[in-house]
Amino acid sequence: MTRVVTLPGDGIGPEIMPAALEVLRTLVNVDVEEHLFGGASIDAHGVALTDEVLAACRASDAVLLAAVGGPKWDTTDPDKPRPEQGLLGLRKELGLFANLRPVRALPALHAASPLREERIAGTDLLVVRELTGGIYFGAKTRTATSASDLCAYSSEEIERIARVAFKAARRRVTSVDKANVLETSRLWREVVTGVHASEFPEVELEHVLVDNAAMQLVSTPSRFDVIVTENMFGDILSDEAAMITGSIGMLPSASLGADGPGVFEPVHGSAPDIAGKGIANPLAMFLSVALLLRHGLHLEAEAVAIESAVDRALADGLRTHDLGGDAGTAQATDAVLAQL
Fold first, then answer.
1. 61 is catalytic
2. Is 153 a residue of the active site?
3. Is residue 114 pLDDT above 90, yes or no?
4. Mind listing the domains of the chain with CATH numbers?
5. Rounded to an integer, what distance in angstroms lies between the CA atom of residue 229 and that of residue 99?
6. How far is CA 278 from CA 70, 137, 271, in A?
């Protein structure tokens, strides 16, 4: 039996996770094991990720994560636990170096985007973000009056994420860096160029500085196919790209390693301001289930079935609150299940 570990987390997480499991179980038979994670785990155990939960995740076929964090656990004290430490720990311990964030501009949601329809029409891109290196994982120092965060990358780390991007590309890889300023970016550019020349010469490669890439994402997003970039740049650019879809509540993600289980989660946060109201948008969670089926369980037809059901439900008029409508979590779930 396929084993999926679920981590509902915080805020709206415990509301959208049951909806996601309804959709998943419509298509496949899975054994589900739920665990505390993030702020909920801090409250119960004092840490965001326990050794027991990490072991369960390692032993699973895939991990489905909802959301973590909230004002309750916000702190600037480096000695206090934070929910996000669970995310970073899970990615590092499972070796999840590649984060995939697909972004599609659906015709049904063109009006929901803050960008004009003629700018976003035809957008279908993938952000490939390096997930276990860079400034998020570098050595950190802190005194009363100064602080530092080390940004470091090795050639091996850059090579493996570049290969993921080139394999996913249909026509072009856009490698994003800050090579005019940062030494890590100069290495990044050299290594990506080398991988392209030796292994993927049939794919077009371009190098774009991160500030220029941010501008082009809102001016001409349809020009992009695959964007590959380092950890912090990828974090920022993928959230920017999410607004092309009309709401960050529409964006799923997959975090993958060389082997072992991947982690599949929506990009949105825990939205504590709407938690418990039954109005959270579960569609990014459903699309994350589709990525779990595609990349975690290698069930392409079932993944496409979910993506198609979400598309058809939106085309039929489904709109959650963040998309300008009044459908709640239950109504959105019923609309997608009806299409399945």
1. no
2. no
3. no
4. 1-96+251-340 (3.40.718.10), 114-245 (3.40.718.10)
5. 10
6. 18, 36, 12
DSSP 248: G
Give catalytic status of residue 334 as yes or no. no
Is 31 designated active site? no
Percent of the chain with pLDDT over 70: 100
Can you give 167-181 as a three-state secondary structure string? HHCCCEEEEEECCCC
Q: How far apart are CA 258 and CA 261, in angstroms?
A: 9
Task: Give the confidence band of 211 by pLDDT, cuts at 50, 70, 90.
Answer: very high
pLDDT attached to residue 62 = 98
Give the SS3 label for residue 280. coil
Q: Where are the alpha helices (DSSP H) in 200-271?
A: 210-219, 231-242
Which residue out of 10, 178, 225, 322 is catalytically annotated? 178
* Residues 78-94, mean pLDDT to the nearest whole number: 91
Strands 2-9 and 62-67: parallel
Q: Model pTM?
A: 0.91
pLDDT digits (tens, 9 = 90+) for 154-202: 999 999 999 999 999 999 999 999 999 999 999 999 999 999 999 999 9
Closest CA to 249 of 141, 328, 322, 145: 322
The residue annotated as part of the active site, out of 61, 149, 239, 334, is: 239
Kindly write down the DSSP assignment for every residue of 122-189, as one continuous string.
T-EEEEEEE-SSGGGTS-EEE-SS-EEE-----HHHHHHHHHHHHHH-SSEEEEEE-TTT-HHHHHHH
